[in-house]
Structure prediction request, 122 residues.
Amino acid sequence: MRAKYKTIGIKSIEETLSEAGEVMGAISRGEDVKPKAPAFYFTSFEAFRRAMTPQRYALLKAIREHAPDSVQALARIVERDIKNVSEDLKALAEMDLVEMERHGKAKSPRVRYQGIRIELGV
Prediction:
């Protein structure tokens, strides 16, 4: 079963590598390592801002609310060009925020999470 929330955050490459090193060290010592909740991290706030645009957030909301049966149907719902919607869906899929279900020749975008948690360290 999927988690109810997806975490998106900002972490430096150094922090990410340090955490990975700690996990690998624990594994090499034979310690149990519990899986973490699904998350996607950016290296800067600017990178996050470029990735999570208002248009992409609107797509997530439209998918949750309308459950469109195709990308074309979603483009009609949000009144945007299908090419731009497809590009935004690709970016959202890379962040694991959207999944594409095949239905014959059509692909239906789906959001499996109830919400997104933003994690910002200070």
Notes: The CA atoms of residues 45 and 58 lie 20 Å apart. The helical segments are 13-28, 45-51, 54-66, 71-78, 82-94. The first helix runs from residue 13 to 28.
